[in-house]
Fold this sequence. Notes:
Elements: H1 2-51, E1 54-58, H2 76-88, E2 92-97, H3 117-123, H4 126-133, E3 136-137, E4 148-151, H5 165-176, E5 181-184, E6 207-208, H6 213-218, H7 229-235, E7 239-240, E8 250-253, E9 256-259, H8 265-276
Parallel strand pairs: 1-2, 1-4, 2-3, 4-5, 5-9, 6-7
Antiparallel strand pairs: 8-9
Amino acid sequence: MRTNQQHMKIKLISLSFFLTLFAACSSTAEKQEEVSVQEEDQKISQEEVVAAKKVLFVLTSHSEMGDTGEKTGFWAEEFAAPYYYLLGQGVEITLASPKGGNPPIDPSSIKEGAQTEATKRLFEDEQTLEKLATTSMLGSVNAEEYDAIFYPGGHGPMWDLAEDANSIALIESFYSSNKPVAAVCHAPAIFKNTKDADGNPLVQNKKVTGFSNTEEEAVGLTDVVPFLVEDMLIAQNGIYSKGDNWSEHVVQDGNLITGQNPASSEKVAELLLKELLQ
């Protein structure tokens, strides 16, 4: 009799332990499922935020390399790498240029030695090439419709965008509205005539970079360009820094993001996206 009671007691203890263990496992599973649902919701929420963001890409309309008889324009890689990076993250991109229509591509940027995975993709992407052929006129752009502005380089911007009244007004509007303003390589030339709300140079006392004097010298165009990007940024009292020639070097100061050269273009886009998600 006592043995049967002992067996019954052991069974009850075992059953109790099993039920406790089952309840604990169920609770853990529910919590894990709840965490997974929360993580998925956060992921969807972030995707929705990115998808709602609109970035304006501004390209040059200038095609003449001074009086050399050579052609210039925008640098293909400095457009393609940021474009595909942001597009891949779900950002909506609009293209604009001072004259509208098809902005010139710098012929040197389509040579074999200048090709990257992004440029190869660009030249096979009929949809994006059609989009490039029909850029909006810069004067028709409303800054309020966009969350950030980005300028690819190439020598072209030094002649037109550095002096373009519509471009200057857009940059000042974006910056004063605390929206990211980004430029790479020669494109920081756009800051030559921009001012902050107090009438000071927009880059004054701000960390910036751009195509260096030694890089300009290396391509043999020091005496051809209307000014040197590095010298101009320093003259505007910007806190200029640079890396080695052709190495990635990107600087951010608040919502101002600049890259030194083609190697820096995608990193500029990464910081731009990060700023958009703040």
